[in-house]
Every structure is written in structure tokens, then in C-alpha cells.
Specification:
48% helix; 5-stranded mixed β-barrel; Helicase, Ruva Protein, domain 3; 192 residues; OB fold (Dihydrolipoamide Acetyltransferase, E2P); alpha+beta; DNA polymerase, domain 1; 8 helices; 3 domains
Length: 192
Amino acid sequence: MIAHLSGKLLFSSDRFVVIETNGVGYKVRVPMDTLLFLRNKKSSEVSLWIHTSVREDALDLYGFEHQADLEFFEMLISVSGIGPKSALGILNIAPVRHLKEAIASGDTAALTKVSGIGAKGAQKIVLELRDKIGTQETELGGSMLREEHDAIEGLVALGYAERDAREALKKVPAEIKGTGARIKNALNRIGK
């Protein structure tokens, strides 16, 4: 199994990148955080932690900038009914830290924003992962995740594409609290 890839970034799209290692190009599906990190790198040399998914009809690679993100991804796919593509969709709605806090606080509403994850699926994720994540996460996480979603919805209502809104909000410093303040800071970043 492939656990780590280092090489040259040859291509990036909205859902995957191609990394060349020793003359072989590997197609690696990545979450938005990792994609933004790779696109903003000054060097074309990249290094990703990899989850290899083997099915009867496919061999897919999923890449992550941090090993902690890979571990959380693998926790998500350990939940029955959650496959790698759904887990990647969950990772695209918010930073891992916010997702862990939401799961620890039992906030299923945020997880249902992912296409294909209904209320029952979100409850299953919370039930199966709450103990694995631990009790160190607080209820603040659920409100932080709701704030992030409200800010995205606010920017979309102002006419920005959801992807652009997410990218701008990911650049907003964590110490800026409140939906309005986060939207204002994101608008300043979009305007630059």
C-alpha cells in the first residue's frame, strides 16, 4: 500500500492533483485545504500522506498535507456507510479541528451539509466517533462550525461562488470570531 508520496506537482484540478514520482504520475484526490496548500506553494516539490483505497474496480489514492488529517479521514471511513468520497466531502465543509469539535459536541446539522449524508448518517458518525475523538473537544466547536457555515452562506448570498467563499474563509485568522466579522475579513481578502 502507498502511505506517502513525494514528488513534483504536475497538475491540479478542483478535485485531484497529479504527482510525478520517479517518472510515474499518481492521481491523488485531495480535500480543499490540501489543494489550496499545494496551489499556494512556491516550490513544485510536494509531499502528501496517502490513504490507498482498493476496490474491485478501482485503486484510488487520497492525499493529505498533515498526518492528523489522514487519521481523521480514516476514522470517518471506519463508520459503516461512509466511503472515501463521502469522507472527502465532509473534510471539505470545514477544517478538521472544527469537525472534531462538532462531532464531540453532537452537532449533526453541520454534517448534513454534505451531499449524500442525511440526518441518520450524521447521527451514526457522531455516535461512532464521539468516543474516539475524545472528550477534550468542547461545545464551542459546534458553534464554531455553525459560524463557518453561516459565513459561507452569507458570502454565497452576496453572489460569491461557494468555493471562493470557502477559500477566503480558510484564510481568515482563527482569532476572528463571529459570523459578521469573518464575512467582513473574507470580503477584504476576496477584494485583494
